[in-house]
Amino acid sequence: MTIVARRLSRRFGERDAVEGLTFEADRGEVLGLLGPNGAGKTTTMRMLVTTLTPSAGTAQVAGFDVRTSPLRARGRVGYLPEEVPLPREARVCELVRFVADAHGLSRTERQATAGDLLARVGLAGSERRLVGTLSRGQRQRLGLALALLPDPPVVIVDEPTAGLDPEQVAAVRALIRELGERKTVLLSSHQLGEVEALCRRVVVMRAGRRVAFETRDELARRLKTLPRVVVRVEALDRDRLMQLARGLDVEATDGGPAGATLVLRADPNVAPAIASAVIEAGGRLLELRVEEPTLEDLFFQLAGGDRR
């Protein structure tokens, strides 16, 4: 395993920001780190990149202990924090040269790698620009390129697509997906759709503790979260459709005299019976589909969040 955390803890005064956290991630994986604000995600990432020392427990990054070999562990990680601390008066090319020199890259390696990375994050041709003239989204993408410059085996990213437009989001997600094929990527994001698109497994945290570490399907089975069954009909009003669904868990309804839509939480096996009941009642079935539980459904169930 490239990242291994065992009962990792961090205390600030009397408060446990992270308590007894255990998980691991291997090469060829994008692992999601989820939790509401204050759950301990950023503290966890800072311990893994050695900017915070654990109060207890152990963690290894690429085979190096973050407490006993912090410099070696840090040298194997590319880290993109949510707020990228870049000097505004520096030029992009100067930052690239500084980071490359710090990691011992030759001029040839720097030129070959930097040009490709800047192009991949949409900053080709920006080498002479001052960092202070870049937008927040551009600084975020520059931070990602700098984190990847030394080709680290482990990449830790916090909100990597914050402030980006849809085209830039797609490009950064594609890059992370590609990185996940040959590196270990730990991804923290408030965008649950992003985590769902990129991660097979997730660590869910609440109040500093791990409440889940598994795949979405495993979570759904453990939490017994039923799929949604969406029924859309014509020639039946909402009240009549509700009567046909009596005894089932109705999540939402919409419609009027000419037709209606009903969203149920139910076993998918009820779908044929619902279709038959609609037709027997004189309705016309326009749509009947089953939606598996999303990561958002499971996250709110685990983290005790409020959707509003």
From TrEMBL:
The keyword 4Fe-4S does not apply. It holds the Pfam family ABC_tran. Residues 3-232 form the ABC transporter domain. Keywords: ATP-binding, Nucleotide-binding, Transport. Gene3D superfamilies: P-loop containing nucleotide triphosphate hydrolases. PROSITE patterns: ABC_TRANSPORTER_2 (PS50893). The keyword Membrane does not apply. Signal peptide: none annotated. GO terms for molecular function: ATP binding; ATP hydrolysis activity. Belongs to the ABC transporter superfamily. This is Multidrug ABC transporter ATP-binding protein. It comes from Mycolicibacterium gadium.
